[in-house]
Amino acid sequence: MYYIVQTTKSFEQAATDLEAAVKRNGFGVLHIHDLGNTLRSKGIDFKENCKVFEVCNPAQAAKVLAADMKLNMALPCRISVYTENNETKIGLIKPVPMLASLSQDKTLQQTAKEVEDKVIKMVDEAK
Question: What confidence score (pLDDT) does residue 116 get?
Fold first, then answer.
């Protein structure tokens, strides 16, 4: 269900490299949520770092929405760069099993596989 890799890069370098990999692979970064800073700004003692990248390929998103508009709630794809116990990691929830739990449409499964292959490639490039 998850795809997570560990990297020897710093948190900031991994985040920078992920953003570049997303763009190289034909996706766009819609937004980056800095969860660590957000939690700390609310007075929560949060020691880790976590940036969640919302990424999207418009053509693939359009296929999903054309098949089932309710799946807008599963979009866009999210890839996280985070620290855990002094290690930097990059990970995502795989689109194929996630979409399979939401729809049995075989066309959507192929689209999910195409997206999953690309986002895993992005993570591996950023690693």
Answer: 97
